[in-house]
Amino acid sequence: MDKRIIATFIALTFIIAPVAALPNLTVGTGANAHPVAGWAPLKVDFSGWSNNTTITNWLWNFGDKSHRQGKHVDHTYKDGTYKATVKASTKSGTVMFAKSFTITAYKASFTAMQLKKSNKVQFHYTGNGKPTSFFWNFGDKSVSHAKNPSHIYKKDGKYKVSLTVKNRTGSKIVINRITVK
């Protein structure tokens, strides 16, 4: 008999034997959340899967005092950072799988302050989310790409100011109405 064949057979037997000795192993069980970061309101899809047919219950705790059961669920977050968890259990309540996710919903916002005795308005970005670009529309056909621009309005009036911010997760538009007098 060829010695190479015997060595290969012994090695395969050694590798396969420990796996067979673990009957309660939850191979093929997992969960995902997508996306885990973005602009609020942020809708996150949660899904679980398992090859273990004894798992009958998926309990999702969204980290904002709400929860839901189901293998595939979604949840919408306000701005903030949350720790969401899932527990997959059997009919008798034995937890077979658990996982946690950090969910971050960014806030986009700004303030506008008119300087005394002038039509100059100072704008400040007050949100989070680490924007990589800013696009301001001051409502009088003027624009800016600065983070915290100032703008001089030619006449008194009411203006609809919009700010579009972008980061690695996407973009968000915020609109505020201001009065210049």
Write the layout of secondary structure elements.
Layout: H1 3-20, E1 29-34, E2 37-39, E3 42-50, E4 55-61, E5 67-69, E6 72-77, E7 80-90, E8 95-106, E9 110-114, E10 120-125, E11 133-137, E12 143-144, E13 150-152, E14 157-167, E15 170-180
Parallel strand pairs: 2-8
Antiparallel strand pairs: 1-3, 3-6, 4-5, 4-7, 7-8, 9-10, 10-13, 11-12, 11-14, 14-15
Q: Which key phrases capture this entry?
A:
181 residues; mainly beta; Immunoglobulin-like; 2 domains; 15 strands
Give your account of this protein's structure.
The protein has a five-stranded mixed beta sheet, with no helix packed on it. A four-stranded antiparallel beta sheet has the order 12-11-14-15, with no helix packed on it. It has a three-stranded antiparallel beta sheet with strand order 1-3-6, with no helix packed on it. The longest helix has 18 residues, at 3-20. It folds into two domains: 27-106, Immunoglobulins (Immunoglobulin-like, Sandwich); 110-180, Sandwich (Immunoglobulin-like), CATH 2.60.40.10. A hairpin with a 4-residue loop joins β7 and β8 (95-106). The model is unreliable at 1-26 (pLDDT under 50). The protein is rod-shaped and about 70 Å long. The termini are far apart. 18% of the residues are buried. The protein has 181 residues and is mainly β. The protein has one helix and 15 strands; from the N terminus they run αβββββββββββββββ. The protein has one helix at residues 3-20, and strands at residues 29-34, 37-39, 42-50, 55-61, 67-69, 72-77, 80-90, 95-106, 110-114, 120-125, 133-137, 143-144, 150-152, 157-167, 170-180.
